[in-house]
Amino acid sequence: MRAFYKTGLIVIALFAFLQASAQKVVGFKDEHIGYMGRIAYQADAAKVFWSGSYMLINFRGTEASVTLKDERGDNYFNIIIDGKVIVLHPDAQKRTYQLAKGLAKGPHTLMIFKRTEWADGTTLFYGFQFNDGAELLPLPPAKKRKIEFYGDSITSGYGVEDFDGGNNSYLPPYKNNYITYAALTARHFDAQYSCISKSGIGITVGYTDMTMPELYDRLDPNDPNSRWDFAKYAPDVVVVNLFQNDASMMRQADRPQFKARFGDQQPSQEFIIETYRKFIQSIRSKYPNAQIICALGDMDACKESLPWRGYVEKAVSRMKDNAITAHFFAYKNTPGHPSVEEQQAMADDLIKYITNTVKW
């Protein structure tokens, strides 16, 4: 196994750990493994797509490994063992990676958290391996609070760890959903966390071929016929942070994505407002008891001089639902995507808003 350092974290990459000693093998269907996120299952593995999806297990032992196969070798995962984070970069071959060795005797918690986006590929999770004699422990009780986010690159964590001016933001190593405002907010409230996001996506148009109303109800984001069962996860709070890419595309009418949607004609304000309203209303139909926060920011779409705040406010007003509210982040006024510090500032802002407005 080869390890190197990236953004202050240990990254395990390329070479798998092949354990010669006896192992306790725990398959992906084992009841001691907890899953969070929209995860599909095939005969021999779980299929992990979305940013922020994770697998969790508690055990008593001294060694831990995981068996994975990535679609293209582009994905990165945070491995959190007893609160300490390392980064795992699995390749496109089925391999077993050692995550810990020489752990202190006693109980341990292990989480495998997807940093990168579904567009970076699907990862197959086959299960865990522990030292012979290790004991599997019960999962913790399910968290009482649940939160779900719908967003774009801001919510995904695009470029959040690109500390060199944004030139490498598109590369998978610099994405990290774990330190986005979304994940930080969920951890602050000790809430279950679901994240449905895609860099470049919009409500009416974006830098992708699909819009969020076309994507939001999929289990497998790559399969237009795949449908998520919304009864499996009923969040108390839903945060929708979209419109940044719509705002950008309205200034780039020569792009093929714009032309495919609108031709040479700018969409009307009424079309934009109503498309947004209908999407929020579709979320409401799935979650009749949730508090829905229609957020915007912290990139330039949330500038007060632009119309996008007004579009959100008008859509919210039309729904006449006291449990659907608008909330705007402060415009960050810096180049590129939100940095670590800017994501934290967004989290602080959202945490304060939820604390003051949501009873859960």
TrEMBL record:
Alphabetical keyword list? Signal
- Superkingdom: Bacteria
One GO MF term, please? carboxylic ester hydrolase activity
Name the residues that span the membrane.
none
* InterPro entries in UniProt: CE2_N (IPR040794), CtCE2-like_dom (IPR037461), PCW_deacetylase/CE (IPR052762), SGNH_hydro (IPR013830), SGNH_hydro_sf (IPR036514)
Q: Which PANTHER family match?
A: ESTERASE, SGNH HYDROLASE-TYPE, GDSL-LIKE LIPASE/ACYLHYDROLASE DOMAIN PROTEIN (AFU_ORTHOLOGUE AFUA_2G00620)
Q: What is this protein called?
A: Lysophospholipase L1-like esterase
Lineage, highest ranks first:
Bacteria, Pseudomonadati, Bacteroidota, Sphingobacteriia, Sphingobacteriales
